[in-house]
Structure formats: structure tokens, C-alpha cells
Design goal:
The chain starts with a strand and ends in a 7-residue tail after the last helix. A hairpin with a 2-residue loop joins strand 9 and strand 10. The chain is elongated, with a radius of gyration of 25 Å. The strands form 3 sheets. It has a 6-stranded mixed beta sheet, sandwiched between helices. Strands 2-1-4-5 form a 4-stranded antiparallel beta sheet, covered by helices on one side. By secondary structure, the protein is of the alpha/beta class. Bound molecules: adenosine-5'-triphosphate. The site of adenosine-5'-triphosphate has 13 residues, from strand 2 and helix 1. Adenosine-5'-triphosphate (ATP) binds next to strand 2 and helix 1. It comes from Bhargavaea ullalensis. This is ABC-2 type transport system ATP-binding protein. GO terms for molecular function: ATP binding. Belongs to the ABC transporter superfamily.
């Protein structure tokens, strides 16, 4: 559905985007993660035909952003990272204005506006002034606006930024519904866990390059697979090391004598982990604590993607 080919963008001598190659299948929710300035908004602006690329091209449903921008615009809904201020406009007037700009007939608009407000959970805000809405509500109204012409592809720049946890959960629910409607969705964020909650696949942009790409399923199975366990001991490390070496699902045992602890990777189930702890205690190893380290999603993501989509 989206086919990005050697897409580059320079601002003067500065290369904001370098040779981006990316294919995204229909119905996929794809997340772009990257630090501030990585090139996410530049990519999205090019896909939304608001910014011409320096070289390369991007096809949306077969239409080129270079040679068929009007066709691309009909296929996409775009939500920018900053949206304007609309003094004196009510939510339904706001959507009516955009419906008009997409040539939707006045007699069809009332039902359409009701459906869109329902989709983004704003039915009870119909007739409310846009300026009086919370940030999360404005964001959802902006999403409704981007859906007004029923586009196949949605390009959402930082849709969850600045939202409180409850508003993020709400946004996630809406994304699920849009996915069920078979929309292809591109979302950006600089927070990986936030994207992992909403996306099927994730690509990492760094200084204008795609440095990694992977499916969220794989990241999650890897996260569940290996846990790093730290055991603090009262007694000597040697018997404990021998004990854990003899047990299944354990690899990479390391000793940190100064801290009086040992660490290892454990790939068993939670029940097997509980049984391991019980056995270690009953063996009299002097276990002071037994803890599972939080695995960093970003580390796991980069570790399993290493070499995969690296382009440098
Ligand atoms: N009009 C412009 N002129 C010059 N440089 C620009 C322009 N627009 C963006 N840049 C630069 O290009 C780089 C990529 O910017 P871009 O906005 O695409 O990043 P981003 O990943 O979306 O970051 P953020 O999360 O902060 O929005 C940045 O270094 C930015 O300063």
C-alpha cells in the first residue's frame, strides 16, 4: 500500500532524510520511532505531499507523491503534529467545513459527522466550541477530520504526544477500530513502548536513516522469552553458581563478587521460575533476594534487529 523508494530530503546542506526504502502492506499499523529531529515529520510531510522530496519517490496505493499528488491526497488522511486554533467554530461546524472541502454533499454530511464523532468518542461534544476541548479531545477531533473522505491510508504525526494515560488508552482503542476497518496506518512517536502498544511493525529512524525494522510480535515474544535474574547471596557464590548451572532454562551465569550477587538469563515459565527460587532456598544457598530485571524494550528491539535493516 505504501512503497517508499530511496526517499531523500535535504534542507540546504543538511540531509534530514537519506535513502529511505520502506514497503508497508495494506492493513498494517506501522510505527516510526526516532528522537527529535530524526526525520519523522519530514517523511510524513513528503507522504502527505506537503513537501517535495529532494530525490527518490513514494507511492501510495500506486500513486506517486511526485507525479500524482492530487491522487495521493484523496487516498490519505493526514494528522500533523501541530494543529491550528479555531476560534468560534463548533466541533460539527469544523467537520462540516472539511467535508465541504472534500466536496461531500451537504445532505450527506450530517450522518457522516455523527458517525465520525462516534468513532472518536466525541458524540457528547457535538456543538461544543473546538477551543474549549481538552488536548486529547482536540487530537481526536483532528483524527475525525483526517477520516472525512474515508481514506485508505492514515498518516498520524505523534497522535499520542502530550496525552494523559487515559487519553492514550482511548487513542489506542480508536486505532484498533481503524485497523479493523482495514486502514493502513503510519504513526510516529519518540516513545517506543507507546508505539509498541498500537502497532504491528516498528521502524527506527536515526538521523534521517532507517536503522531498524521489526514486528512488534517478535519484540514481545523476545521480551517474554528471556528474563534476566539477579540473585543476591549471603554466603559464598561458588555453591550457588554450581546449583544454577545444573538447572534447566539457565544460561550466561555471571558472578559479581563485590555486590555479592550472580546474574543469569532464564527462559523458563513463571511457574518454573517460582520452583527455581523455592529449590534455591531449600538448598540453603543463602539467598537474600531473587529478582527479575526489567528488560528495556529499546535494548531488546535494537538487539534483535541488529544487522537486519541496518543500512550503514
Ligand atoms: N524547513 C526546515 N529547514 C531546515 N531544517 C529543517 C527544516 N525542517 C526540518 N529540519 C531539520 O530536519 C531534521 C528532521 O526534522 P523532522 O521534523 O523531520 O524530525 P522529527 O523526527 O519529526 O522530529 P520531532 O520529533 O522533533 O518532530 C531536524 O534536524 C530539523 O531541524
Amino acid at each position: 500500500m505504501i512503497d517508499i523508494r530511496k526517499l531523500s530530503k535535504s534542507y540546504g546542506a543538511f540531509d534530514a532524510l537519506r535513502d529511505l526504502d520502506l514497503e508497508i502492506a495494506e492493513g498494517t499499523v506501522f510505527g516510526f520511532v526516532g528522537a527529535n529531529g530524526a526525520g519523522k515529520s519530514t517523511t510524513f510531510s513528503i507522504l502527505a505531499t506537503l513537501l517535495p522530496p529532494t530525490s527518490g519517490d513514494a507511492l501510495i496505493g500506486g500513486a506517486s507523491v511526485r507525479s500524482a499528488p492530487a491522487e495521493v491526497r484523496r487516498k490519505i488522511g493526514y494528522m500533523p503534529d501541530f494543529f491550528g486554533v479555531y476560534d468560534q467554530l463548533k466541533t460539527d461546524e469544523y467537520l462540516d467545513f472539511y467535508a465541504g472541502s472534500y466536496d461531500i454533499r451537504p445532505r450527506d454530511r450530517d450522518v457522516l459527522i455523527s458517525q465520525l464523532l462516534e468513532l472518536v468518542n466525541l458524540t457528547d461534544k457535538r456543538g461544543t466550541y473546538v477551543d474549549s476541548l481538552s488536548r486529547g479531545m482536540k487530537q481526536r477531533l483532528c483524527l475525525a477530520r483526517s477520516l472525512i473522505h474515508d481514506p485508505e491510508v492514515l498518516i498520524l504525526d505523534e497522535p499520542a504526544s502530550g496525552l494523559d494515560p487515559r487519553a492514550r488508552v482511548e487513542m489506542r482503542g480508536i486505532m484498533k477500530q481503524l485497523k479493523q476497518m482495514n486502514k493502513t496506518i503510519l504513526i510516529s512517536s519518540h516513545i517506543l513502548p507507546e508505539l509498541a502498544e498500537m502497532c504491528d511493525e516498528i521502524g527506527v529512524l536515526d538521523k534521517g536513516r532507517l536503522v531498524a525494522r521489526n514486528s512488534v510480535k517478535e519484540i514481545h515474544s523476545r521480551l517474554k522469552g528471556d528474563r534476566l535474574i539477579t540473585v543476591k547471596l549471603n554466603g559464598p557464590a561458588d555453591p550457588a553458581v554450581r546449583f544454577f548451572e545444573s538447572r534447566p532454562h539457565i544460561s550466561g551465569i555471571s558472578e559479581e563478587p563485590a555486590a555479592g550477587e550472580i546474574k543469569f538469563s532464564f527462559s523458563g515459565t513463571e511457574a518454573e521460575q517460582a520452583a527455581l527460587l523455592a529449590a534455591a532456598v531449600s538448598d540453603g544457598l543463602g539467598v537474600r533476594s531473587f529478582s527479575e530485571e526489567e528488560t528495556d524494550l529499546e535494548d531488546v528491539f535494537l538487539a534483535i534487529t541488529e544487522g537486519g535493516a541496518r543500512s550503514e
